[in-house]
């Protein structure tokens, strides 16, 4: 499930601005054919966000009865938001002092990416080459969560069988369930997880099918995380090293052991770095689970 969050601390604010031209006022960039410009010193109820902004309007668009409908851009010059812009759409000119109206905020860049909202203007002074406007800007910025880096740790076991791993576009962010098939050895595993885009994915079973018995699926709770996995590897068929047992430890409970630890002679444990948890698996499988490794990410 793809998710979005609403950032309101810096973007969802109403700002009334009044600009007076002076020696240190921000530049107004306007084409000679378009006698309008935007200049603002924005003050918000939260804090002083901006000391100035610079706007340019491109004479591209379509003619309208009251003027020209054009995309315009408010480019911020304050150090904190330097390089960020707001994209506004509306009717520009002809106009005179005292005129009021609305522009739609249809996007942005930098700190204001995905901004949506309105910009109310009031033309308060005519100057050479343009107009001075009082602006009231109200926008909400929608931001997509940044994927957390995923690391691989391990693997443990032998080199037999076929390699299985998750593709780059399907990397996990949370483990939802785990099913283990085992008798004297770990025969195969299957699991489901939520990927970095919020989509649920199901994997496996990876492994063989001869004589396997299925244990009840472990369904992890919404706040349950796999913290460590204990296991053992041993000899299978005389010359192959495979995984013989697994025990799953979460922040809530312990599951297992699965398989037979006594069949293995080399214990191992899958331990993520501090403040990380196990969110998926990779490895090698043939008739049984030859090798296992884990994907981990920050909690």
Automatic annotation (TrEMBL):
<comment type="similarity">
    <text>Belongs to the plant dirigent protein family.</text>
</comment>
<dbReference type="GO" id="GO:0009699">
    <property type="term" value="P:phenylpropanoid biosynthetic process"/>
</dbReference>
<dbReference type="InterPro" id="IPR036404">
    <property type="entry name" value="Jacalin-like_lectin_dom_sf"/>
</dbReference>
<feature type="domain" description="Jacalin-type lectin">
    <location>
        <begin position="150"/>
        <end position="298"/>
    </location>
</feature>
<comment type="subunit">
    <text>Homodimer.</text>
</comment>
<dbReference type="GO" id="GO:0048046">
    <property type="term" value="C:apoplast"/>
</dbReference>
<dbReference type="InterPro" id="IPR044859">
    <property type="entry name" value="Allene_oxi_cyc_Dirigent"/>
</dbReference>
<comment type="function">
    <text>Dirigent proteins impart stereoselectivity on the phenoxy radical-coupling reaction, yielding optically active lignans from two molecules of coniferyl alcohol in the biosynthesis of lignans, flavonolignans, and alkaloids and thus plays a central role in plant secondary metabolism.</text>
</comment>
<protein>
    <recommendedName>
        <fullName>Dirigent protein</fullName>
    </recommendedName>
</protein>
<dbReference type="Pfam" id="PF01419">
    <property type="entry name" value="Jacalin"/>
</dbReference>
<dbReference type="Pfam" id="PF03018">
    <property type="entry name" value="Dirigent"/>
</dbReference>
<dbReference type="InterPro" id="IPR001229">
    <property type="entry name" value="Jacalin-like_lectin_dom"/>
</dbReference>
<keyword id="KW-0052">Apoplast</keyword>
<keyword id="KW-0964">Secreted</keyword>
<dbReference type="InterPro" id="IPR033734">
    <property type="entry name" value="Jacalin-like_lectin_dom_plant"/>
</dbReference>
<dbReference type="GO" id="GO:0030246">
    <property type="term" value="F:carbohydrate binding"/>
</dbReference>
<dbReference type="InterPro" id="IPR004265">
    <property type="entry name" value="Dirigent"/>
</dbReference>
<keyword id="KW-0430">Lectin</keyword>
């Amino acid at each position: 499930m793809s998710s979005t969050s609403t950032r309101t601390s810096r973007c969802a604010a109403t700002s009334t601005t009044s600009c007076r031209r002076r020696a240190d006022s921000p530049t107004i960039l306007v084409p000679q054919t378009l006698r309008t410009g935007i200049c603002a010193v924005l003050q918000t109820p939260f804090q002083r966000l901006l000391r100035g902004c610079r706007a340019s309007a491109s004479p591209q668009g379509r003619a309208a009865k009251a003027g020209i409908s054009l995309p315009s851009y408010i480019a911020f010059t304050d150090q904190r938001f330097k390089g960020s812009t707001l994209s506004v759409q509306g009717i520009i000119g002809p106009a005179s002092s005292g005129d009021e109206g609305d522009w739609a905020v249809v996007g942005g860049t930098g700190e204001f990416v995905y901004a949506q909202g309105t910009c109310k203007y009031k033309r308060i002074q005519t100057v050479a080459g343009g107009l001075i406007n009082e602006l009231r800007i109200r926008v909400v910025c929608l931001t997509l969560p940044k994927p957390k880096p995923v690391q691989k740790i391990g693997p443990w076991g032998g080199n037999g069988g076929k390699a299985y791993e998750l593709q780059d576009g399907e990397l996990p962010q949370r483990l939802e369930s785990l099913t283990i098939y085992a008798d004297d050895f770990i025969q195969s595993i299957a699991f489901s997880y939520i990927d970095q885009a919020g989509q649920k994915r199901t994997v496996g079973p990876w492994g063989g099918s001869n004589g396997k018995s299925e244990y009840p699926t472990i369904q992890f709770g919404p706040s349950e995380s796999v913290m460590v996995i204990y296991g053992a590897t041993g000899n299978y068929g005389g010359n192959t090293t495979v995984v013989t047992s697994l025990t799953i430890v979460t922040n809530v409970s312990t599951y297992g052991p699965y398989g037979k630890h006594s069949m293995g002679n080399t214990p191992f444990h899958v331990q993520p770095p501090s403040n990380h948890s196990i969110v998926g698996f990779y490895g090698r499988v043939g008739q049984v689970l030859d090798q296992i490794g884990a994907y981990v990410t920050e909690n």
